[in-house]
Structure formats: C-alpha cells, structure tokens
What does this fold into?
Amino acid sequence: MKHLYALVVTFLWLGNAFAQEFEYPVSRKVEIADTYHEKYKVKDEYRWLEELNGPDVNVWLESQRKLSNKFLTKVEFKYNTLEMLNKFGYTRFDYPQKAGKYYFQYGTYNSLAVPALFYQSSLIDNPRVLVDPNYISKKENISIEGYALSKDSELLAYQFSRNGSDWAEVHVVSMKDAVQLKDHLVNVKFSNLAWKDNGFFYSTFKREDALGKTLGQKVYYHKVGTSQSEDKLIFERQNPAIEFDFLTTSDERFFILKEKNEQAGKRNIFYIDYQAAQPTLKPLLTNLTYTVNILDARNGKFIAATGVDSNTGSVVEIDPANPLKWNTISPGFSKAVLLDATPLQDKLITVYQSNQRPIISVFSYEGKPLYNLEMPVGTSVGGFRGAAQDQELLFHYGSYTLPPVVYNFNVANFERKVFRQTTINFLTEGIEYKEVEFSGKDGTKIPMILVYEKGLKLDGKNPVILEAYGGFGVIEQPSFDPGVVYFIKKGGVYAFANIRGGGDLGADWARQGRGARKQNSFDDFISAAEYLIKSGYTSPSKLAITGASNGGLVVAAAAIQRPDLFKAVVPVVAPLDMIRFEKFTVGHWHTDEYGTVANNDGFLRLQGYSPYHNIKEEVNYPAMLIMTSENDERVPPFHSYKFAARLQSRKAQKNPILLRVTANAGHQGGVTRSSRFNEKAEKFGFIMQMLDSQ
It folds into this structure.
C-alpha cells in the first residue's frame, strides 16, 4: 500500500508540474555586448556563466541540479527506465581485440566500477585483469583511454584520464607479470602511442587553464625506464595551431607523421625509414587538399586509405621511392563508403558501408576481389585486428538493438563462426529495420533508418525519437543502445537521419553540410521531422529529438528554427554559442566546419544559426533537457549553461527547460556503468514524460 501511495503521489506531482510554471533559479543579467566588424553589436547577458568555477556559477548550478533532479528522479521512477535499461543492457565484457600474443578487452566487475583492461593469452583462457583504473585513485574517476603493445609483446603502454578530462597520463606495464613500471608521462593529449624498439612516440600540448586554446602540439619519443624530462623532441612547428598524427608501421621500419593545418585545409606527410643509411624525417606528400591515411607498410611500400579521385574512399599502395605514382588495391564505389581496411600478408580486408549497411570485402594486392559479404541494414562491423600473418581474425557485428556478436574469421577460406554472443533477455525477431528516403528543403534525397516493432500503425500517434549527427564527415555506425530497445518496447519508433555534414554518402555529402553550407544540416533534419509527420509515423506532440556534440547543435538549431515541429528536445554536450565557440579549447580547429567570426560573412552565418543567439522572447519553445558534463574540455559546459539560462528567463516559456550536469565527467559523459545508465535513464524518462503528456 505504501508503494501504491507513493506512485499515486508521483502521478499527482507530475500532473501539477505541468499545471504551473517551473520555478527556475534566478539567472541574473549583466549588460555585456561585443561589436564585430565595427557594426554588429551582440549582447551576451549571461557571459558570467563562463566563469566555470566562480562562486556565483556554483550556486546557480546547485539550484539547477535540485530542480532537474527533483523532476528527473520522479519520471525515472514513473517509467521504470533505470531498471529496464539494466535489464536490456547488462554486459560484463565488450569484444576482444588481438594485439601481438594477446587478446585484450574492457570489462567491469560491478556497476560502480570503471571498466578495467583484461587480457588473455588464448581465446580459451579466462580473462585476467591487467590494468584496473579503480586502484589508480580513490577520489577521482579514472578511465583508460587507449593502449599499445610493444612489437615483442613484452610491454604495454596505456593512457588514462581523470574525471573525463582530455588531458591524459601514461603508464607502462610488464606483460610477463602484470607489474607496473616506474614510467609516468603527463600532459599527453589527443595522442596515440606508437612503439619503436624499447620506447614509443607520443604527443603533448602546452598546458593552459580549463578553457585555454589547445595549441602547440609536440611529438616526443620516450625510452622505457627513463624520466619524461629525458624524452627526445621529434617534431614541432612554429605555428601553434598545426596538429599532428603519427604511427609506426607494424614491422617498425617506418615512422609516419601527418601534419594538418585545418585553417588552410592543407596536409603534409613525412616519414623516417629506419633501414636507410641515415634515417631522417623526409617528406612523402606535401600540400595535400585530400585525405591520405597511411595504414601500414608491406614490402617497403605504404598501404593507404585516401579520398583522392574517389568520393567514397579507396585503398592504394604508395612507393616512397616514387610517391606520386599509386597502385589501386581497393577501388572507390559509387554508393558505399570506405570505413576501415586491414592489410594482411597477402590480402586486404576492407569494410565499406552503404547507408548503415556494412559490406565486408577482401582484395588481393593486385586489386582482385576475393570475397564479399553484405550485412543487414542498420548494423555495424568492426575489428579484424591482428598480425599480418594471422590465419584467423576476430570481428564484431551488432546493431542498435543487438549487442556485439564476436566472430572468428578465417582469412584463407573466409569462413566465419560465432565466438561469443551476449545473452539478451528480450526478443529481437519482432524488431523491424526500414530504410526510407525523404526530400530535403532543396530537393536533395536524404536517407534515414527507422527501427520499430513489427505491425506499426501509421496513424500519427506513435512516439518517435529522431536523431542525427551531421558533422565532420562522421559516418554513423549503429551501436547497441539499451535506451533504443526500451523505447521501441514501449511502442516507440527510433529514427536516425543521415543528414549532410556527415560522411554517410561520401566526402561530397560532408562538404554540403560544412562551413558556408552548414544550414543544410539543420534544414535536412527539419525535413526528416516533416517527413515522419507527413508519412503518419508521428505528430509534433509525439516527436522527440536528440543528438550529441555536433548532433546536439543540430537538434538545438532545429528546435529554435522550427519549434512547432517538436515536443521534446535533448541536446547533449552541444556547442550552442557559436559566436564564441572558436575562442576556447579546441574550437579554433573547427572553423573549417562552422566558419569563423573573423570575417564578415562567417560572422553573419554563425549569428544566423547559433542557437543561443536566436532565442526569441515571445516563443514558447519545446520542452528541453539540456545535458552536459562539468569537465567537458571540447565543448565547455557554459554553452549549455547560457542556453538554459536564456530559455528559462523568458515569460513566454511554459514548457519545462531543465539542465542536467554530470559531475566528474567530460565530453563522453559518465565514466562508470552506473553513471552512464543514470544519464540514459533520466534522458529516456524525460522523453517518455513529455511524449505522454498530451
């Protein structure tokens, strides 16, 4: 009876919450304005919220937390979202990946723990803990950000970060006895670890304050057993905005360094041949305006993925002795985009994708097709890691509603066998995946994937979640999401639109939603919503939209531009003040994607779509749950703070505007399984409440 009484009280509270306005924390206004190009005055009354650790901001945030927690806890209880997500989404290990003599995978031993790194010598062994980040610090959330095994499989270097920060540290572990060595590197950021002999290459940046620009990358070589102060500087540039990527080939003969100047749109590739009489850093290709990514070396020649002469990507062989003459191994296809390529001893394994439909293809190095396997729509494929001479490789296959299934793939006869399949406690047979195509504002045909239970009625009454990313040429690869399963089992439809700006249809598709044409991304997303309504899948009172990072910008811009289309909006770690975005952390690297206020046209475009700057006083915008993390160093959380403050502070706003801030987390959100599932439970609880409120 007590539980029944509590449930009744919850329902009454939720009903009353919408019968009266939310009592939001007071967000004071400070008269601040900037003038651009001597004639454009831009107000920024909530600039004070950029002082992330200021006492006024902390008080304001605590009030926001109390408001959102009160509401979100109750809706999570009402819709039982956390329990159902745990039911649908429990997995202890992710998929194993082979490196050297070992197999590695991440796993958790309880819901409060951060995933640890496990290893095993063979697939029949039980996984053993190699690195447990839960013991690195008792006060901070430590997460492993990556690892690299030495060529002889004797040592493993791994990166870890604290509380979601992009700044990483590096430790080294002996694989013989799982003992950590004394090596400890700091100020590592956006770096891989590339072994060469008894050491590895890594990169650092100049350490600034939390919002300082990320500038001045340097590449170093660290010899195991020495102090970081003794590390050898390998490469730097006077221009602090230039970025570097690097790798060593699997035979450790070559060191490859790629230099990127995003503002100029140019790339240079250098290499060291350690078999040369005098190994020195030499140019391979310079002033590139297209992508070339060296994958590995074979018989002294480079295997590379490139976008030159191919909208969708191809794999070529480059001879460093004659770098301008290339041999094509895997060609570019008109409707399938290259996702990945794995060079082996005598063949190349590639993964292409056509509108979320992966294709595994194998080629000889002479370019002859040897094998082709097309997977179902709405699925993803990854893996195929190992040594060039391995006869069997692991790959994983999954979807929005299917946890990764791990396969053994025989590279000689191309047979595949299931190695591991996560046990699930829901039926997948009744879930349908459907490809549709709709017309954008300018008539462009845009693909979209719909996921729902079979037997769906097109009566306009279905709850729908529409999602997109649409930036940086990113290609959407479906991954298992217990939240999507939960929503579908509640009678909902999940839709993912492959809008322009993403790379789902190739490099041209990405360019059509970048820079001066960024508005195309928002228009495409709005057209996706209109299609879902017109086709009878849903109605504006049943339509929720969400997206993360650039996808968060897309949904926020769409909601501000077309508030009549949506009932609930959930932007996650989104850039929302586009006029000031480039002033902080990594924003200056993304002016090619968004534009810059430094020139007149760029300023006008940014001002035209920046969600924060286009909020109108007289509009009651859809209900919003604005989600961010307090330590996000890529999109600082003040974007969400300022956006929420301005929306809440208007008399016209009747629909709820809530701000949810994850503590001790960065751009990727919660670190522990518990924190991630809490985020997801409150997000889906909010959406369910909003779509049920009509």
